[in-house]
Amino acid sequence: MTTIDFQNKTKLLIDELKGVCANYGLGNDGNEFKIITQVFLYKFMNDKFAWEIKKLDERLNEAEDWGKELASYSENDYEMLMMQLHEETARLKPDHFISSLFEKQNNPDFAKTFDDTLRDIAITNNDIFSVKTEGGTKVTLFDRVSEYISDTSKRDAFCRAIMNKLVPFSFEHIFKEKYDFFATIFEYLIKDYNKDSGGKYAEYYTPHAVAKIMAAILVTEKVQNVTCCDPSAGSGTLLMNLAHAIGEQKCTIYSQDISQKSSSLLRLNLILNNLAHSIQNIIQGNTILHPYHKDENGLMKFDYIVSNPPFKLDFSDFHADLDTKQNHERFFAGIPNIPKAAKDKMSIYLLFIQHIMFSLSSKGKAAVVVPTGFVTAQSGIDRKIRERLIEKKMLAGVVSMPSNIFATTGTNVSILFIDKTNTNGKIVLIDASGLGTMEKDGKNQKTVLSALEEQKIIDTFNNKVAVEDFSVALSYDEIKEKNYSFSAGQYFDVKIEYTDITPEEFESKMSGFKTNLNSLFAESKKLEAEINKQLGGLKYEKE
């Protein structure tokens, strides 16, 4: 079976699970995504366990039913195999296997058995797969999914229907696939559950083009044992692209996001992409008010930071708590004021930029999505941040993206690149607003970049080249002279059009100009005489 076949089979499984939920009254229900993502994850973990355990023991690989064969092992033999498993593989007991549950589906209270099994898996693997809140509470891997069915008489049937979708298909042949395969699957899995719903802390989905460009510009050389952070992680699109560019086993992921839903999706993303070793660093909480990741020197400093923070948000309920002595260095440019009206327009992204600048290691690099208005604002916090980036010589450049690159917002966006090692280097400003093709995305329009256009942006930035009407490569002093503007367009040369002509053509044109000038001069003299004559007549009448 080809990779495309497996991809289609996986998408079909997701569709079938959504169909089961719809049949039991959970279509478009707020809890549907919890059931779909958790059941999918259970299937994925079961099959990955089978794949890993068969590599350790040839007997299991040759057995007609590996689950029954493994269940027959002695306690010591079983434990020895568990000790050899890869650290990112869930430890399962024979009762946890899908095949074992399938055999019990006609037993009384099957829904309870199903829920108890998932909960026991979560508890058994709590140390590896639990997400923490900023207060330290662990959010376990699985809920009691049948309890989302309000009609208790239908819970057993619902769980049986789920089981019957999980048995026919196995993931075992796809674990050697690359990042792009799992990124596609993850996007398909969450596509109905990660849209901007307009709430206070709505989840934002970053387009792959933006994520790819950010990662490709940040990671231009081989690195080892680096730390990567996203203080507004969402479902992890930016972090996954960054980790893939570095190498999943060469980096440790850290994140924080106020949304419980986003943290759960990020955990799933990490598991799918061989980054389960970083799950312990996923924190659900308010980064601006309670930044979680700390070391003996205070807030942790990271080698790479990526972020697509919310731009406008009402944070008036904790505004006063930010103006403390320990925050003065972190929020060096200030905290946006609380307006009398339209509190939801408070510029919280300015706090995220300052937090990111404060959280970079001595050689740290960052890429942050910002509203394009930030790059030219001539007063306030925006201007102070830009001044600091220039004065401290930590700016790498800015890419101004096409309008509607995000289907969920009409705000024009730019990507701000920070690099604390760029003390003597050139700053690259790119105006990519003219790139892309407009496409329909549901009820919205969005701009889609082609692979060639993405690569044009990446190559231009990384090669630090000037391209007419597209990019400039500048010194820090040149940006100071332009009042700290980060807009590429303000540095483009004004073009003067000219045409090569022969001496004879030049003489002819000059002769024409001379004739026209003489004619205009004669007309002006005539007009002057006429005016003087009229003025003379007026003087005579007065006398």
Concise account of the structure shown:
The chain is an alpha/beta fold and 543 residues long. 43% of the residues lie in helices and 14% in strands.
Strand order of the largest sheet: 2-1-5-4-3-8-9-11-10-12-15
**From the alpha-carbon coordinates, what is the Rg to the nearest angstrom?**
32 Å
Q: How many domains, in number, for the residues?
A: 3
How helix-rich are the residues, as a percent range? 40-55%
* Average predicted confidence as pLDDT: 89
Query: What is the 3D form?
Result: elongated
Q: Main beta sheet: strand number and arrangement?
A: 11 strands, mixed
CATH architecture assignment of the largest domain: 3-Layer(aba) Sandwich
CATH topology of the largest domain: Rossmann fold
CATH class category of the largest domain? Alpha Beta
Distance, first to last CA: 112 Å
Tell me how many strands there are.
15
Poorly predicted regions: 196-203, 538-543
Task: Note the topology.
Elements: H1 3-23, H2 32-56, H3 58-62, H4 66-71, H5 75-84, H6 98-103, H7 110-124, H8 126-129, E1 131-133, E2 138-139, H9 155-166, H10 179-190, H11 208-218, E3 226-230, H12 237-246, E4 251-257, H13 260-272, E5 282-284, E6 294-295, E7 298-299, E8 302-307, H14 319-322, H15 349-358, E9 360-371, H16 380-391, E10 395-400, E11 413-419, E12 427-431, E13 437-441, E14 444-448, H17 451-463, E15 471-474, H18 476-481, H19 503-542
Parallel strand pairs: 1-5, 3-4, 3-8, 4-5, 8-9, 10-12
Antiparallel strand pairs: 1-2, 6-7, 9-11, 10-11, 12-15, 13-14
Helix pairs in contact: 1-2, 1-9, 1-10, 7-9, 10-13, 11-12, 11-17
